[in-house]
């Protein structure tokens, strides 16, 4: 049997792995009633155009115009406030950040690969792991999105990584499948940080 290549790099998704992403919660922060929060979320975070924003194919202004068109005028100020400030409500998932920082201290390469808009740094900048990252790739900046295997290969090419030496962590199983197609190991994160750590150490 050939010797297994050990994992020396861990690549984290951002939303709901390193940072919380919760459209209904964000919407509730900028509205006064559950009904208004539902309407705001449907027009913004729950809109099909949100994916286009993350893909880099529409601008933030286009997203705002679409959302305004799908909301009563009285909620336009709420929408504006939400668009401006929702990243501030995206809290770090501390145990995952702590794990990433520990792994970095043990010699692992630590990266982020995220489907996110060009405003990604408004979230990622207040992730505790940010100063420890070896690099990151953002879908909107590359015009590629997970689970397309091309975006995982792009990250490996950019940072001179061997896919077989990488563990990719995402809360979306389809994105994990894309990583496996690209030659990486993958872990579907559902909230169990101890299990994630055990997986990383087993492969390392």
TrEMBL record:
It holds the Pfam family Hydrolase. This is HAD family phosphatase. It comes from Candidatus Olsenella pullistercoris. NCBIfam families: HAD-SF-IA-v1 (TIGR01549), HAD-SF-IA-v3 (TIGR01509). InterPro entries: HAD-like_sf, HAD-SF_hydro_IA, HAD_sf, PGP-like_dom2. PANTHER family: ALPHA-D-GLUCOSE 1-PHOSPHATE PHOSPHATASE, FLAVIN MONONUCLEOTIDE HYDROLASE 1, CHLOROPLATIC.
């Amino acid at each position: 049997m050939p010797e297994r290549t050990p994992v020396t790099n861990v690549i984290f998704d951002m939303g709901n792995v390193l940072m919380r992403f919760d459209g209904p919660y964000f919407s509730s922060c900028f509205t006064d009633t559950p009904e208004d929060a539902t309407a705001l979320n449907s027009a913004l975070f729950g809109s099909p155009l949100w994916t286009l924003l993350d893909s880099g194919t529409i601008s933030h202004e286009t997203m705002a115009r679409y959302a305004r068109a799908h909301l009563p005028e009285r909620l336009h100020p709420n929408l504006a406030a939400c668009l401006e400030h929702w990243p501030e409500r995206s809290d770090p998932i501390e145990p995952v950040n702590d794990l990433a920082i520990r792994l970095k201290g043990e010699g692992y390469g630590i990266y982020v690969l995220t489907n996110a808009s060009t405003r990604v740094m408004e979230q990622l900048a207040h992730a505790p792991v940010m100063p420890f990252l070896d690099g990151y790739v953002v879908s909107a900046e590359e015009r590629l999105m997970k689970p397309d295997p091309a975006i995982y290969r792009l990250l490996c090419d950019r940072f001179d990584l061997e896919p077989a030496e990488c563990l990719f962590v995402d809360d979306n199983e389809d994105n994990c499948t894309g990583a496996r197609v690209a030659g990486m190991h993958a872990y579907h994160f559902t909230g169990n940080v101890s299990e994630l750590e055990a997986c990383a150490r087993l492969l390392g």
